[in-house]
Amino acid sequence: MPSEKASGFEATPSVSVGQRIRALRHQRGYSLRVLSERSGLNINTLSLIEKEKTSPSVSTLQHLARALAVPITAFFESNEKKKSVSLLRAAEQKPTNINSTWVVNLNKEWGGDEVQPFLITLEPGADSGGVPIVHTGYEFAYCLKGKLTYIVENETYTLEEGDCLIFESHLQHRWQNIHKEQTQMLLVLVPAESRATPISRHFE
Predict the structure, then answer these.
(1) What is the pTM of this model?
(2) Do 41 and 110 belong together in one domain?
């Protein structure tokens, strides 16, 4: 896991950010006007982005990610079909920095939505925010190193290296790195709804 901040988000040559935004918008049945209202962005700006006539800033992508309920990394993923078997080498795992948290999407090459595994590295004090998280399905957290606190329905669970927690994720929950050093965990989300992306709610 890198020790320096990521310089930004970069799309691979085979991925069109504008086309990904349009595809995600169509999947949700949103018109440009609806997406404009949900994101607070100008409708003409959205049109130019989708037509690849202008490049969105990271701030703009964050607004769009919230409006579309996807992680910001979704804009840089291809539309390849789900594979039956997928091998993701360590060298291919590219972390994305969100605030004080590094996120690696471990099912990026597989492309399925039924199981969504992530490698999460939290800087000291990093947390999921003040608003409790609620989404469908189940959540599994395994502490790889450091010390992690999960609060589920006002019950506090402290996870140390080797500890794991699984719960129904419709229960209100939050997490925080209470360790003085980096904490790393394996986070597996199993949403009950097709195409759901609950990981975005963990970094709002």
Answers:
(1) 0.61
(2) no
- Give tens-digit pLDDT for 43-67: 999 999 998 888 887 778 888 988 9
Task: State the maximum Cα–Cα separation within the chain, in Å, rounded to a whole number.
Answer: 50
- Facing residues of 139 across strands? 167, 189
Q: What's the rounded Cα separation, in Å, for the pair 57 and 43?
A: 16
Domains: count for the chain: 2
Enclosing domain of residue 123: 90-203
Residue located via tokens 């972390």: 95
Question: How many whole angstroms separate alpha carbon 3 and alpha carbon 10?
Answer: 19
The two three-digit tokens of residue 32, written as one number: 């440009």
Residues 194 and 95 in one domain: yes
CATH code of the domain covering residue 57? 1.10.260.40
β-strand partners of 147: 160
For residue 59, the surrounding DSSP H or E stretch is: helix 58-68
Same domain for 116 and 174, yes or no, is yes
Residue 144 is inside which H or E element, if any? strand 138-145
